[in-house]
Amino acid sequence: MSLFIASLNSGSNGNCYYIGNDNEAVFVDAGISCRETERRMKRLDLPINRIKAIFISHEHDDHIKGVETLSLKYQIPVYITDDTLSGSGLKLKKQFVFPFEKFKPINIGNLTVTAFPKFHDATNPHSFVISHNKINVGVFTDVGIACKEVIKYFKLCHAAFLESNYDEHMLVRKLSLSFKKPNSQRARSFIKPAGP
Ligand SMILES: [Zn+2]
Predict the structure, then answer these.
(1) Based on the structure, what is the number of domains in the chain?
(2) CA dist., res. 21 & res. 126, Å (int)
(3) Is residue 194 in some structural domain?
(4) What is the per-residue pLDDT for 192?
(5) How far away, in angstroms, is 122 Cα from ligand 1 center?
Protein backbone atom coordinates (compact mmCIF):
# COMPACT_ATOMS: atom_id res chain seq x y z
CA MET A 1 0.00 0.00 0.00
CA SER A 2 1.46 3.34 -1.01
CA LEU A 3 1.70 6.51 1.00
CA PHE A 4 0.93 9.86 -0.55
CA ILE A 5 1.96 13.17 0.97
CA ALA A 6 1.23 16.70 -0.18
CA SER A 7 1.50 20.21 1.05
CA LEU A 8 -1.76 21.87 0.04
CA ASN A 9 -0.36 25.14 1.26
CA SER A 10 2.54 26.21 3.41
CA GLY A 11 3.55 29.51 4.92
CA SER A 12 1.99 32.45 6.72
CA ASN A 13 -1.00 32.51 4.34
CA GLY A 14 -2.06 29.03 5.43
CA ASN A 15 -0.78 25.58 6.28
CA CYS A 16 -2.40 22.30 5.33
CA TYR A 17 -0.55 19.01 4.90
CA TYR A 18 -1.97 15.77 3.57
CA ILE A 19 -0.64 12.33 4.50
CA GLY A 20 -2.58 9.29 3.39
CA ASN A 21 -2.61 5.73 2.12
CA ASP A 22 -5.15 4.15 -0.25
CA ASN A 23 -7.88 4.02 2.38
CA GLU A 24 -7.41 6.81 4.85
CA ALA A 25 -5.63 10.10 5.24
CA VAL A 26 -5.13 12.89 7.72
CA PHE A 27 -4.62 16.59 7.46
CA VAL A 28 -2.17 18.29 9.73
CA ASP A 29 -3.70 21.74 10.11
CA ALA A 30 -6.35 23.21 7.86
CA GLY A 31 -5.22 26.78 7.44
CA ILE A 32 -6.79 27.57 4.08
CA SER A 33 -10.50 27.94 3.40
CA CYS A 34 -12.65 24.86 2.89
CA ARG A 35 -13.31 25.88 -0.72
CA GLU A 36 -9.61 26.29 -1.46
CA THR A 37 -8.87 22.97 0.27
CA GLU A 38 -11.47 21.27 -1.92
CA ARG A 39 -10.04 22.88 -5.05
CA ARG A 40 -6.49 21.79 -4.27
CA MET A 41 -7.52 18.25 -3.30
CA LYS A 42 -9.37 17.93 -6.61
CA ARG A 43 -6.34 19.19 -8.51
CA LEU A 44 -4.26 16.44 -6.87
CA ASP A 45 -6.98 13.90 -7.60
CA LEU A 46 -7.38 13.14 -3.89
CA PRO A 47 -10.85 12.36 -2.55
CA ILE A 48 -11.65 14.55 0.42
CA ASN A 49 -13.72 11.79 2.02
CA ARG A 50 -10.48 9.90 2.56
CA ILE A 51 -9.64 12.42 5.30
CA LYS A 52 -10.45 10.69 8.58
CA ALA A 53 -8.94 13.24 10.96
CA ILE A 54 -7.51 16.73 11.17
CA PHE A 55 -4.69 17.28 13.66
CA ILE A 56 -4.19 20.85 14.81
CA SER A 57 -0.69 22.03 15.68
CA HIS A 58 -1.72 25.31 17.34
CA GLU A 59 -4.32 28.04 17.32
CA HIS A 60 -2.88 30.61 14.91
CA ASP A 61 -5.20 31.49 12.05
CA ASP A 62 -2.88 30.21 9.32
CA HIS A 63 -3.34 26.72 10.80
CA ILE A 64 -7.06 26.63 11.55
CA LYS A 65 -8.87 28.83 9.00
CA GLY A 66 -10.70 25.98 7.25
CA VAL A 67 -11.22 23.63 10.19
CA GLU A 68 -14.77 24.54 11.22
CA THR A 69 -16.25 24.23 7.76
CA LEU A 70 -14.29 21.13 6.77
CA SER A 71 -15.18 19.31 9.98
CA LEU A 72 -18.85 20.21 9.72
CA LYS A 73 -19.28 19.63 5.99
CA TYR A 74 -17.42 16.31 5.83
CA GLN A 75 -17.97 15.18 9.45
CA ILE A 76 -14.24 14.97 10.10
CA PRO A 77 -12.95 14.44 13.66
CA VAL A 78 -10.59 17.17 14.84
CA TYR A 79 -7.74 16.24 17.16
CA ILE A 80 -6.87 19.28 19.21
CA THR A 81 -5.69 19.95 22.76
CA ASP A 82 -8.01 21.70 25.21
CA ASP A 83 -5.61 24.65 25.43
CA THR A 84 -5.48 25.07 21.68
CA LEU A 85 -9.22 24.72 21.33
CA SER A 86 -9.97 27.39 23.92
CA GLY A 87 -7.25 29.67 22.51
CA SER A 88 -8.53 29.27 18.96
CA GLY A 89 -12.12 30.37 19.40
CA LEU A 90 -13.11 27.54 17.06
CA LYS A 91 -16.70 26.43 17.27
CA LEU A 92 -16.58 22.74 16.60
CA LYS A 93 -19.32 20.20 17.11
CA LYS A 94 -18.58 18.33 20.32
CA GLN A 95 -18.83 14.92 18.70
CA PHE A 96 -16.02 15.84 16.31
CA VAL A 97 -13.58 17.04 18.97
CA PHE A 98 -10.91 14.62 20.18
CA PRO A 99 -7.98 15.32 22.48
CA PHE A 100 -4.44 14.18 21.91
CA GLU A 101 -1.48 13.97 24.24
CA LYS A 102 2.19 14.41 23.54
CA PHE A 103 4.09 11.20 22.75
CA LYS A 104 0.88 9.10 22.76
CA PRO A 105 0.33 7.57 19.31
CA ILE A 106 -3.18 7.70 17.87
CA ASN A 107 -4.28 5.21 15.22
CA ILE A 108 -6.28 6.49 12.29
CA GLY A 109 -6.88 3.28 10.34
CA ASN A 110 -3.41 2.09 9.35
CA LEU A 111 -1.84 5.46 10.01
CA THR A 112 -0.32 6.30 13.37
CA VAL A 113 -0.01 9.91 14.44
CA THR A 114 2.30 10.95 17.26
CA ALA A 115 2.39 14.49 18.59
CA PHE A 116 5.29 16.10 20.36
CA PRO A 117 5.61 19.57 21.85
CA LYS A 118 7.57 22.26 20.10
CA PHE A 119 8.83 25.75 20.78
CA HIS A 120 6.50 28.37 19.27
CA ASP A 121 4.73 31.48 20.44
CA ALA A 122 1.38 29.71 20.95
CA THR A 123 -0.60 28.18 23.82
CA ASN A 124 0.36 24.53 23.48
CA PRO A 125 2.03 23.94 20.09
CA HIS A 126 2.86 20.51 18.69
CA SER A 127 4.52 18.92 15.72
CA PHE A 128 3.54 15.51 14.37
CA VAL A 129 5.02 12.37 12.94
CA ILE A 130 2.69 10.22 10.86
CA SER A 131 3.71 6.59 10.39
CA HIS A 132 2.58 3.95 7.95
CA ASN A 133 4.31 0.60 7.37
CA LYS A 134 7.43 1.84 9.16
CA ILE A 135 7.63 4.94 6.99
CA ASN A 136 7.64 8.14 9.04
CA VAL A 137 6.56 11.53 7.74
CA GLY A 138 7.16 14.60 9.88
CA VAL A 139 5.20 17.81 9.87
CA PHE A 140 7.22 20.52 11.56
CA THR A 141 5.68 23.94 11.17
CA ASP A 142 6.84 27.27 12.55
CA VAL A 143 10.24 25.84 13.29
CA GLY A 144 12.21 28.60 14.93
CA ILE A 145 14.64 26.84 17.16
CA ALA A 146 15.64 23.28 16.31
CA CYS A 147 14.87 22.01 19.79
CA LYS A 148 15.86 18.57 21.07
CA GLU A 149 12.48 17.01 20.24
CA VAL A 150 12.42 18.30 16.66
CA ILE A 151 15.91 16.97 16.01
CA LYS A 152 15.06 13.62 17.58
CA TYR A 153 11.91 13.13 15.49
CA PHE A 154 13.41 14.58 12.33
CA LYS A 155 16.07 11.89 12.45
CA LEU A 156 13.35 9.22 12.41
CA CYS A 157 11.63 10.66 9.35
CA HIS A 158 11.89 9.45 5.77
CA ALA A 159 10.18 12.62 4.58
CA ALA A 160 9.31 15.84 6.34
CA PHE A 161 7.45 19.07 5.81
CA LEU A 162 9.45 21.84 7.34
CA GLU A 163 8.11 25.34 7.59
CA SER A 164 9.85 28.32 9.10
CA ASN A 165 8.40 31.64 8.17
CA TYR A 166 8.01 34.06 10.98
CA ASP A 167 9.63 37.42 11.12
CA GLU A 168 12.71 37.35 13.29
CA HIS A 169 12.56 41.00 14.33
CA MET A 170 8.94 40.73 15.38
CA LEU A 171 9.74 37.64 17.43
CA VAL A 172 12.79 39.24 19.00
CA ARG A 173 10.66 42.19 20.08
CA LYS A 174 7.94 39.93 21.37
CA LEU A 175 10.09 37.56 23.36
CA SER A 176 12.95 39.92 24.10
CA LEU A 177 15.33 37.32 22.81
CA SER A 178 18.22 37.71 20.45
CA PHE A 179 19.08 35.31 17.69
CA LYS A 180 22.45 34.98 16.08
CA LYS A 181 21.03 33.69 12.79
CA PRO A 182 17.77 34.18 10.90
CA ASN A 183 15.30 31.44 11.71
CA SER A 184 15.28 29.99 8.23
CA GLN A 185 19.02 29.43 8.63
CA ARG A 186 18.43 27.76 11.97
CA ALA A 187 15.83 25.52 10.38
CA ARG A 188 18.29 24.60 7.65
CA SER A 189 21.02 23.98 10.16
CA PHE A 190 19.47 20.80 11.45
CA ILE A 191 18.64 19.35 8.05
CA LYS A 192 22.24 18.51 7.20
CA PRO A 193 23.24 16.00 9.87
CA ALA A 194 19.84 14.34 10.19
CA GLY A 195 18.10 11.55 8.28
CA PRO A 196 17.12 7.92 8.89
ZN1 LIG B 1 1.95 29.99 14.60
Answers:
(1) 1
(2) 23
(3) no
(4) 52
(5) 6
- Let me know if residue 17 belongs to a domain: yes
Per-residue confidence (pLDDT) for residue 119, from 0 to 100: 81
- Examine residue 169 and state whether it is found in any structural domain, yes or no: yes
Look up the domain containing 164 and give its range.
4-189
User: Ligand 1: distance of its center to the CA of 60 in Å?
Assistant: 5
Distance CA 29, CA 55 (A): 6
Q: pTM for the whole thing?
A: 0.85
Tell me, in angstroms, the distance from the centre of ligand 1 to residue 46's CA: 27
Residue 127 lies in a domain: yes
Q: What is the DSSP string of 88-120?
A: HT----GGGEE---BT--EEETTEEEEEEE---
Q: Between 135 and 164, name the one with better pLDDT.
A: 135
CATH of the domain at 68: 3.60.15.10
Q: Where would I find the H helices in the chain? A: 34-43, 61-64, 67-74, 82-88, 148-156, 168-175, 183-189
CA of 2 to the centre of ligand 1 (A): 31
**For residue 116, how far is its CA from the centre of ligand 1 (angstroms)?**
15
- Per-range mean pLDDT, top range of 104-108, 122-126, 189-193: 104-108
